[in-house]
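HUMAN: Forgive my ignorance: could you write out one protein's sequence and backbone structure tokens?

ASSISTANT:
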Amino acid sequence: MAHLVLPWTQPRVTFKPPLDWNERNLSPILGSNQQYYLDQFEWCAAKNSSNPNLPALFLTICHGFYRNMWKETLRYLLIPIVAYAVLALLSLVSLLSGSFGISALMIPVNIVLGVWFWISCLQYGKDFNLLYMEHVCKKAAANDMTPDPSGSRVAIGCLAIFGILVVYGIIYSAVMSSMISSLFYW
């Protein structure tokens, strides 16, 4: 029995992966990388651990959308994303009110959030194969053989993320520009 400890859940999430991955044809779910994932699932089940998945390491959010793991991806990145949103709202409030006390904290907090975000991305890339094994097991048990790989889901997800980053960048730029201009005219 494989045990999976996810950082956002208590207690342990436990499931029984099928013992013989070749017993069922998982190619409709896995797509063209079936053999890679079947080998990884065997390793994960035997070791109760996961090998790093390079696409998930380097293309975290995009790979999560591609493999229909967007919920799991967002769970791994939820705290830094929410913290960025709160920081953006506080910065916007400080910009509109003309008080730059909160805005002065943006630079160190952004650095901490950036480090936290990248550590979360690395952890997700490390755990991806184990998470994906659980995802595929649940789909197979429910006889849901819909394909996971989807280029259109990646495009929509990446456009949404790009839009959020643009809004955050505009807020951050406006706050920083107001802070800098107030320093020069002080």
